[in-house]
Amino acid sequence: MSFEIVSSGFQHRQRTGTPLSQALKTGIVFGVLSLYLALVGVYLTFDKSWVVVNVLSMGRTLLFVVPLLAGVQFARLNRSQSRAVQLGGTLLVGLIVGGFTACLLPVILFGNLRVMFVALSSPLAKMLALGLTPVLGAAVLVAGSAAAALFGALLTVMSPTVRRPITVGLAALAVVALLQEVLQLILRGGGAAFSFITRGLFQYGGLTVRGAIIVFVAAALVSIVVARLRAPFKARFAELPPGAARFLRQAGIVILLAAIIFFPLIGGSFVAQVFLLVGLYALMGMGLNVEVGLAGLLDLGFVAYFAIGAYTIALLTADSPHALASMSFWAALPIAVLVSVAFGFLFGIPVLGIRGDYLAVATLGIGEIVRVLVLSDVAQPLLGGAQGILNIPSPAIGSFELATPTSLYFLTVCCLALATYFAFRVQDSRLGRTWMAMRDDEDVAQALGINLVKTKLLAYSIGAAFAGVAGAIFAVMLKSIFPHSFQLLISINILALIIVGGLGSLGGVIVGALVLIGLPELLREFGEYRFLLYGAVIVAMMRLKPEGLWPARIRRRETADA
Amino acid sequence: MALLSVDELCVHYGKIEALHDVSLTVDEGQVVALIGANGAGKSSLLKAISGIVGVASGSIRFRDQVLTDCAPHEIVRHGVVQVPEGRRIFSRLTVQENLDMGAFLRRDHAEVRRDFERAFAMFPRLRERRNQVAGTLSGGEQQMLAMARALLSKPQLLLLDEPSMGLAPILVDLVFDSIEAIRKDGVTILLVEQNAFVALQIADIGYVLETGSIVLRESGPALLENDAVKRAYLG
Ligand SMILES: Nc1ncnc2c1ncn2[C@@H]1O[C@H](COP(=O)(O)OP(=O)(O)OP(=O)(O)O)[C@@H](O)[C@H]1O
Ligand SMILES: [Mg+2]
Description:
The complex is a heterodimer of chains A (562) and B (235). With 562 residues, chain A is mainly alpha-helical. Chain A has three domains: 16-157, no CATH class; 160-239, no CATH class; 269-488, no CATH class. Chain A is 73% helix and 2% strand. In chain A, the strands form three sheets. A two-stranded antiparallel sheet of chain A has the order 1-2. Chain A has a two-stranded antiparallel sheet with strand order 3-4. In chain A, helix 16 (405-427) runs antiparallel to helix 19. The longest helix of chain A has 53 residues, at 242-294. Chain A is globular. The two termini of chain A are 21 Å apart. With 235 residues, chain B is of the alpha/beta class. Chain B folds into two domains: 4-79 and 155-233, Rossmann fold (3-Layer(aba) Sandwich); 91-154, no CATH class. In chain B, strand 7, helix 7 (169-184) and strand 8 (188-193) form a beta-alpha-beta unit. In chain B, helix 3 (95-102) packs parallel to helix 6 and helix 4 packs antiparallel against helix 6 (139-152). The longest helix of chain B has 16 residues, at 169-184. Chain B is globular. Classes of the chains: A mainly alpha (562), B alpha/beta (235). The A-B interface holds A 433-434, 436-437, 439-441, 443-452, 554-555, 557-558, 561-562 and B 50, 52, 71-73, 76-77, 81-82, 84, 88-94, 97, 100-102, 104-105, 132-133, 135-136, 149-150, 153. The structure holds adenosine-5'-triphosphate and magnesium ion (MG). Magnesium ion is lined by residues 42-43, 85, 161 of chain B.
């Protein structure tokens, strides 16, 4: 199969060169990075959010985090050099990075490049000058960058016992600052017990000075305590009889799982909404994982089955002129699954003989055809065209309506649990083995008596079933559905999440959904820039952990044996 | 009656004619070798027999079954199994799982277990490595795995496509020893080889294929003595 995520054997050669040339190189690389962040508008956008309200904006922090990282990088490469060389080099690195950034000031003030770079505006100039006059500001920026680089280098060379609490404290501060909106929401939802914490740490828009100090100190203390207790705890754990150790480990996993599952209960409806979305994507990920991860059939039209599940529910339950029936959600759900399965089978037929990259393009076509058909005038009387289908009732258990995000989230969790169990069983079954054999070599699988047609169509149908369930819940979540909800981007997101999680791994699907769907949702405050994180995560993953966050058993074995 | 008889078989890839009026018979218990230069159409013939490529005209008969229009997985069911050229193992499955796939169609579990033992006895290296991921096996071990896997599907006719390709001489000997052992177990073998010298030594009958047509059919020893064959294939 031509679609492979190859873990490249390419290794960076040990960097060589004099400390001076390395300082120049590091400075220029990070300087360009800083320019880039300025030009695409990251600095300015993040200047509107606070690390500490009215004291330190995220944009300004970022402005100095870049030279800090440059300092870390330089110090790493020059561990063996003398202190004087390290000090001089680091200062040079910081000055270069700051200099690059400061160069933007005259460009903005005297040049006129806004035609090309919208971000080069006077607010950016004001921000880069740190609110001072341009000349003074530039001087402070450059000096501050050098100081930041020095701090980074210092962190790198100091002993880990000192470094760890500082980095943990700073990291905690960064996380709390990034997630402050969500955290405040959660804490507000938690009633009186939490409102005490809320008032202690936050004000509108972010952390207070006191809050920032508390977060930093608390995280640093925790890190110190953990570091102290770790070794004795490990020793105690090792002394336990194996049965007890296994029990403890399993209990730990169960508790962690339960904590994640029930988190939206304390988190309130915003968190439940995010988790609901994560759950739906995980459900679809389970399905696509059957196709791509197990059977090796790269499907970029997967969103079609999601749409089919959603439209089936809409047509069978909605209170709308387009509805064909007015069933209950529970009666319509199995039908939605069956219809998805039928379409999985149907759409599988034309692409049976297509392999690898071509299959990706063909399935992409199928996904788009479905969307365009739904939008078209031909289907308008039946499917409602661009206006979609409205008034889809919520599912009800007795007289209890599953209308809130939280209740729908628990419905999704139940479906996801069933789906995971099913996927787990099928993966280790004869059918699962057949899929994997076909993924590795279609021709040989066929030459050993495997019926490729049957095996492929089963993969498409079963994969589609999962997406159908997700689509059904999606329909009752939105209470109305429109063709534009079913974009190609969804297929790509699902593919990305199963790759980031670890192709062919069920745990990976869930972790991938949490990271790629959950995190960006929690960072909504940052608008489109949250996709920067999305992109960065994917690139970093492919560099650092190409087998995924939670690799499938077979891949883990491969890396262990290789 | 011949176990396998191929009659006036033609195979086309678009406009390219890979096989032209090829006729060949294999009797039960024989080793039949098919030799020929690169691109002569040897693999095409095996693929046509296994149903992987379509047939333009002619017929393929196995016992009293016509295989010409059967799907590949049906042909395997009839007992005709191919080991394709180039060590095509399931690289991300373990050795054990690869062998399991060989026995995919079988329901006689007790006998499968016995065949596993037989395969491991024939290739002890595979037993040592049964839990290793097959993609990390050496080239020679992969060839052994491919053959063992085919044996587990309990073939009556085994089609081997260049089993010695890219192997060191000592491994070539090992592979050919195992081919003889397989024949002793009662499996009929159609063997395609570039390495005409070794192939013809164990073959009862040899065919020479040139640009899509059979040009010679003789017993193995006779072909080894044939001047034209010596010049063209034995160097
Ligand atoms: N799928 C294909 N499409 C087009 N032409 C093909 C295809 N497969 C084989 N051919 C052509 O058919 C001819 C016979 O190929 P075949 O693979 O049978 O040769 P071979 O005798 O097995 O050669 P080798 O010893 O190199 O394996 C060649 O000219 C080849 O280019
Ligand atoms: Mg060949």
